[in-house]
Structure formats: structure tokens, C-alpha cells
## 1
Amino acid sequence: MLLKQFASYVKSNRNASSFRVALWLGSEDEPGLPAAEPNIAPEEPEIVEGTGLAVRPVGRPDGTLFTHFLDGAQTARRIGFYDYTAPVVYGFIGAVIRKRDADRHMSTHDKDYRENLYFSFAFVDPNDLRKAGIEPVDVAVRGKGSSDESEAHPLRLQELARSAVSNARAEMERDLAERWIAGSRSDEWLCWDGSISGRSGTSKHPRIIGVIKSHQTQYFRAEEQRKVLSLGVGERSSVFQPKGYGWSPVYSWYLRLHPNEGRDIYFGLVRVEAAATPETIAMADEVSRWLLAERSPLSLPDSRWDRMLYPIRDCEQYLKSIAPSRVMIEASLAGL
């Protein structure tokens, strides 16, 4: 484990005296790190199905053709500081594709994981760690000699480190998706927990479907957004193309998986992504029925069960089994 290697380095190397372990011993969320801010897309999306945004019933689910499921996970925990100012963050990232056979048994089709230390090279020289066999990741926006003093704020550097961990996890997921593409058959479909955009290979593949559970980005203005939020269970929006982020083009639509009467407006609501092709528009109802079929069994006791498909929860449980726990992280650094 990387942290045991790091602990050994700190104990035995006199050049490491400026590293100070300072574990956060409260809740799982560390202080001072803001959640992702809600935002409105810079450009309104283009409606590619019909003449305007409409509510469309998709029909009753009658099975699913999804055979593979992709998800990723990350752990980002501040483990200390260098010279009192630069936070050092331990990051673990993992991704897995789980395959479901004809008997509905799940097995691991492909996986990847790694761990790194993340900090700003503008404030910490990484060479001693490299000599000890530890390859850290630079999180600074600018290099040494930067005149931007705001980058020296410990909470800002900590935020950059956690963003770097998140970006690395997303890249790992895309790598796994591209490996799946290279070996997939024409009767296999991949359901991906997250956006399929970012690389043309994954965003253009006709049998990859992305399911996004979070709604930080609002794509429509108020009147149109009311139609999205008023969707009933088993209803979807018209297909649209998101604009303004520079990602590979995709088509998208909203789908309500569970009724939200008396609950939050986003309860049971997901956004679906698929290749930007006429075939996607033609299959939007069918793909939506597959996703409705994947609701059973419920993903309890996960708090996001209303938006999480059960095979995706299976991926998350697998990733949780290989990721270091908080207790393991703290035990590795005990005594420093």
C-alpha cells in the first residue's frame, strides 16, 4: 500500500521532516471543501426530436439488452501538510466493468485501480519522494515562481488535489470503456454510470449508454425546465444535444425512474446520454424501457437508490471491496 511506503519514507528520511501528518478525524467529508456548485449551461441545448421540448411516455419495460456495466470510484483524503502550508492528499481511484450473464450472475470483465499522493510541486519538491519510489502528482495550476498568491491558500490547494483525483478517475473510466469497445460483440451493450462524452471513441459508439444521476448543470431555462421536472415515472423528455462545454457531441434526454410525489423534484430523475445519431432518436423509448427494467431489485440501502440502477450498485460494491477504508488509511500512518 502506498501509504505504508510513504510512512516508511517519513520515518527514515531526514529530508522528510517538513511533512506533518494531520488526519481529518471527523466525518468522511473534510472541512473547507465546497460541493460542486450548481450552474446553468452557457448555451441552450438543441432539440433534435420534434419541434420543441415535450414529455413522452416510453411504455412498459419488457426486458433489457444491457450486458456490461461501468462505474468508477475515488477516495481523496488529506493526510497532512508540507511545511505547514501545502496539503498532501492521498488519492485512490478505481474503475470496473461488470458483466451479467444469461443467468443474471455478475462477474468482473475488466478493472483498473491505482493510488497516488497529490500536492503542488510549486511548494513541495517531489524529487526525494521519487528517489524513494513514490511518484506524486502535481496539482498546481501554475508552476514555480507563480505570482498568483491565491494558489498558496491551503484550502485552494486541497481543492485542486481533489479535482485532480476526480479527473484521473474519469480518465480511467474512459480507458476501460475504450478497451471494452475493442473487444465487444455486436450483441453487447454497455451501461455507463456517468457521461460518455470526453472522447470521440466512447461518445460515438452506438451501444454505449451513459446514465447521469447528478443535476448540477441545468440545461434548460425556467419554462422548459418545468417540463423536465414535471416528468412522471416512465416518462422522458425529447432528445436534445447539450451545447457549450467543448465535449464530444452526444444526444441526451431526461427520464423519471421512480415517482416523486411528495419528494424532491429530482427524486428518481436521471439524464441519459448516447451517440449523436438518428439511430439514438429512434431507440430512445426502447433504451428508456431497458433502464426502467434495471430498477429491480432496488439499490437499497444506498441513499441514491432512486437514481441508481442495481447493476451499477454491484459495481460500486466491488470497488468498495478493493478501495482502502478510512481505518486502513489512518492505521498506515499511525505513529507519525
## 2
Amino acid sequence: MKIVIAGAGAVGTHLAKMLTEGFHDITIIDDDEERLSRTGETIDVLTVNGNPGSIEVLRAAGVSDADLFVSVIPSDDQSINIICALLAKKLGAKKVTARISNDEYLRDENKIMFTEMGVDLLFYPEKIAVDEILKLLQRSEMTDFIDFANGRLQIVVLRLTEGAPILDKTFEETWSVGESLKYRTVAISRDGRTIIPKRDTIFKEGDLIYVMARRDAVPDVMAFAGKEKNSSVKRLTIVGGGKIGGMLAQRFEGSANFVKLIELDKARCDELVHRLDKTLVINGDGRNSDLLYEEDVKDCDAFVAVTSSSETNILACVAAKNMGIEKTIAQVENLEYIRLAEDMGVDSVINKKIITAGRIFRFTLSSKVRTVKVLNGSEAEVLEYIVNPNSAVTKAPIKELEFPKDAVIGGVIRGSETIVADGNTQIHPYDRVSVFALPTAIKQVDNLFS
């Protein structure tokens, strides 16, 4: 697939790196020569130095015969991305998508207008991040999770800590039993590596486990991982009053008993006071442990740090964890810091680049892919397919297919039936199938479902 990316900023560079693993033909456009040079040195892509809003530059980048055009220019005025996407579509790009920073554009009545103009997808990374944080606050005992078919099937992500009943047991020993499989560990993240478990794989303290489970089996999964279900979050502290922090406070106010927001910039605090109805806005440094103690942060159910500094967010969450707060969430934009944050005890990590890349990545796969989510803590993606009647995956039970070793079919939705898959499972046409795959296996997986 030929893909043109406008913008060699953090999101564009991460997306290009992710897409090169799928053997796509990638070109990146940027008018910042230094930024473009850094990207070209680390990723095998073609680079075009110039203004992405220039028709001449877009033509030079080969937009006319591009399968996908992605505009993620790191500009204060995000409307440039829409302009570039519209130009690319007019020049011949088959699909175009643009990053935005205006929630108004995502209203249903307005999305239709952009679709009619030719933009296939608009995405607002900060809003996507807020959506992810709210989901994590609803299930505070989990590190991450994914719902399929309105929650009938779920991937539950949990950190194994001291005392977990499954520690030192093999994968086979934790296999659920009964008339049908209720849950199954589909992957383990350990020491920066993602492992697709075999029957003799042993669970160790510190492992991050990814478990495919039927909805009715989630309590069993929590029990074998040694997790008690926490009560819902009603008292929340947020550090950082930028776009994400402000939006999060505003959306959480309706379901919360109490929301406290700490922001260092006095002028921004004044803005937030007028925008937020039920949130206590405090002008201060969220890294200051004394301030956190003075403000009784320890009495909150959860603590979220979303400043523009990854280091500040990690340190603030560590301080909150030491005070006894059960759930901590940090925005960590430096990819190399994600594992550090997890090792330091941060419960969940949010990264806009990873979330956004997952949304766009779906456009590079077959039309039968409904959703893609890139998981924090692993290199893997979770994909949900609608099975083509003629696809190779329907020809035999899973154990007889040449399914790549770096991928696993986790679950199947078939009408009213919910199935956690094993080697004997036969995939049928029109099944909704969830797949956990490492980047090296995605192309093979997609071919099996095409």
C-alpha cells in the first residue's frame, strides 16, 4: 500500500515506524528540514521537504496514486490538516484522514459534512485520550481492557503482583475448564518482550497478562490474578489543566462526588474556573508532595497526571501511589518512558501517539477489519475481523491452519454465541473474530482473513 504522511512530528513519525513493519511504501512530507532528517535517519521512508499544503509538493510526494493520505502536521492551527486532506483527495488519494483539535467537528451532524467533502476520518488525539482515561476509571482494577460486541467478549489486562494465585503456575494449569472455554491468556508482556504463551509457559511476578474472557468470566479472571474488584471512582484528582485535563474534569463532573484539578499556570487556572462547574481548581505544582498532602489527595479514589511533561506525570503518580491511592494513570508521550513508568508502579499509561496510530492503522488493513487497538505495555495490536466467506481462515480448525506463531485468535462472536477460541475452534463465515498479533504477524493474519 502506498501511504503519504503529512507531518514528521511525534505522531507522524510513530505512525510511519509502525506502518513500515507492514512493508508499506511510505512517504513523509514536512517543511521542517531538521525534523524530516531525523525521521529519515531512523525509519526507512521517502522524505519530501516542503509545505504539505502546497499542491506542487503534494504531487511531488505522489499523492495522486496514494492509497492513504494522513495529515498530522504539528501546527497550532490544526485546520491545515483538513485543507491538506481535502487537497489530497482531489488530487487522487483513495482515502484521507486528518488530525484536528476542535471537538465541534466531531459532532454527528458535522462529521457527515466532512464525509461528503471527502475526508474519510477525523481524529482528535486529546479527545481519544480522555475517552481511554474515562474507560480506565470505570474499571479501576485493570491496567487496560478492550470490549468486543458491547462487552460480551473482553481482553482484560492485569499486572501480576505478589500473592497472585497463578504465580509460578503454567499456562496449561490456568486454562479454564467446563463445557466451554471461559477465558484464556493470549499474551504476556515481560521485561519489554511480548510472549504468546505455550502450554508450559510459567507466570511470573511483574508479568502484564492479556486475558480474553467472556463477560461472565471476568470475576474469575480477577480472582486468579489476585485482584479484588475496586469500587467505582467517585473522587478524582487531576494534575495538569491542558486540553486533556480540562476535558477530563468537565466530562467526569457529572458522575463524580468530587473532582480536584491542580495546574501550575495561573492564567490557565483562571480559565478553568470559569469553564468547570463542580471542579476545585488549585494553582500549584503537582510534583510537590507537600502540596499533595495539604490537599488531601490521599482521600481520592484515583489520580490522573496529564501535564505536557512525561517526567512530571510519572513522578506525580509515584508520589500519589506512595500515599495509598489505589489507581494512578499517567500520560507518557516519551515511548521509552512507558516501561519505566510501569516499573515504578504507575497503574495505567496513556500515550496519544499509540492510541492515534491504532485508529489510522485500520485503514491499512482489509475492509473486513472493524477495530484496531495498539496496547500499552506490548508491541501487539488487537484486531477485530468480520470473516469473509471465502477467506482461508474458514477452511479448517485453528490448529490445522498455518496461523503465524506471533499471533493468536482470542475469541469469536457468532450470533448470540460467545466463544473463547482454542485449537479446535472452527471459524465460520461472518463470525466476528478478535486477534492478538505482533507487528511481524499482521500481514499474514490479514491475508488469512482477506
## 3
Amino acid sequence: MIIVTGGAGFIGSAVVWGLNRRGVDDIVIVDELGSTEKWKNLTGLRFQDYFEKDDFRSRIAAGDFSRTASAIIHMGACSSTTVTDASYLIDNNYRYTVELARFAVRHDIRFVYASSAATYGDGARGYDDTAPIDPLRPLNMYGYSKQLFDLWARNEGMQDRMVGLKFSNVFGPNEYHKDDMRSVPVKAYRQIVESGTVALFKSYRPDYADGEQMRDFVYIKDVVEMVLFALDDTGVSGIFNIGSGRARTWNDLARAVFAAMDVPVAIDYIEMPSALRDKYQYYTELPMAKFHDAGWRGQVMSLEDAIRDYVCEYLTVDARLDSDGALHRRHETGRNSTKFQPQE
């Protein structure tokens, strides 16, 4: 049996979808649904049981699942970079992960967990997953909560008993509940439907033109394959970057959304909030050599192909990942074409 924490969330539900496509449904999902619409990500998935996070933590402390679980894929965390309650993040992102790691190691259970590229901070120290992690300086409490666990696992001598994955800018279906933390592709899609334009931040550095700031974008379907590789290969351990390995510009991304929707490109460059200007990353690209050296032989989709799949197969028809192959519609939109007539 495989436990997936955060299994109703964006990456977690996609991992369950990937397991289902392999024919695996002996899965226990753990999450904290609250009043969100994350539950909708579960309706197209197959699994054996569901537990709320606090109940699950109590059961782990009591030793439940020690004889039945073969693996824990720990994607459960608060992923908001704007949360300021540091005590909450310490408990939810750091302490919770420590509890699961100790449990997994004690009972020889495969443990794959979500770290984050946010641990790299502003990138001044690079994005090298082979370099020491001590010098890294995250820019926000979310990144620091992830860094704390990476350091704990190293200090406890447990890194060779688990796999940590530093996710880059992941986008794709099942992220709809994330509100302001949704990826730019889905935000751009909504903007184009409503106004025919996409708003991108201006650049405040002379070496980058407006919209030419760069990110390592990676599609959720590629991320799922990487997570499952880390799950499968029990000889793989340590911390790895998870991205495309190629930086692309925000302009590239916006143009790809326009192309997928078959409407003319219209980009507005807007002022960046002053609070962000000193913390803004102008370039991120995650080297993937370490993951390839570990045995990963997959090829990620190009940004253009990934955007086209996202827009045409999911956003246009308001769909989520569905393990039975059918599109699960959140509501009927009446749209049956990728040709849009933006509102005036």
C-alpha cells in the first residue's frame, strides 16, 4: 500500500493519477480538505481510503500502517509563499515531515518527499543540487521550512534513506483550487478569455527586457513521471532538482498560451509591486544532470507542447486529471473549440 500525503492537492493528486494509470489503486490519501475545492481533484481517482492530516499524524504516532505501507510519497505541505505564520509552517511543513521520515526509516518504508526550489533563494548561490545546502538562503518562510527539513535529514544521516525533490515552476491540471498561487499559464488563460490580453511584470534591470525574465517551467505530467521514477528505483537517494532543465521567458510562456488558444498575442507590461522588487528572481534554471545520472531517461515536453496540452485538453473543457481516461468537467462551459472571442 502506498500513502500519498497532500493527495488531494495539485502534485499529490496528479501522482495518484499516475499510479492509477499503472493499475495501482491500493493507495491511502492524506490531506486537509477544509472548505477548499481540493476534494474535486479526488473524484476521478481510485484509492482505498482517505484520512485527514491530524488523524493521520495520530495514527502514525501510534504505529499504524507500519506493516501495510510500502511507500510514503509526502507531498503534503502549505505551499503558499505568502503565508506569514512561521509557527504554522514549522509544524505543518517541517515537524510533520520529520515525523513521517522517522516513521518511514524505522519501518523500512520508501520515503519520497517534496522539497522545493524555493530553498535556493535569489539564486545568488546557484541552483546546483550537488552543492552543499548549508549556504542556501531562502527568501520566504515557505522556502525556509523546506530547507530546515533538508538540513535535518542531512544532519541525522538519513539522506541516503530517502529522496527529496526540489520542484521548480510546476503547472498543469488540478491546480485550480490554489487561487493566487495558481501558475501563470492558467492565470494567462483566464485573462485572455476575459480581456484578450495578458499582464506581465515589467523588468527593473537593464540586462532584461520586459517579459524576458526567465523561469524553469515544467509540466505536471512530466513531474509525475519523475516522482514515480524516484519511487521505483530504491537505489536512488538524496536531494534532486525537478524541472525541465531549460529556462524560458515569461514572454515565451504567454505566447504559447495565445497560440494554444488561437488568438492574437497582446501582452501588457505592468508595474511590479515595490515589495517584490528586491526579492524577484530574474533567472532560474535547475540543472538536471544529477537526476539523469541517477538513471532518469525521460524527456520532458517542450513548453509549447505542454501549454497546448493544458489549454486544449483541460482548461478549454474545464477538466481535471481522470484515471479512467474521461475528462472530469467541473461544470459545463458550452465551449467546444479553442478559438475564443474575448470580451470587449
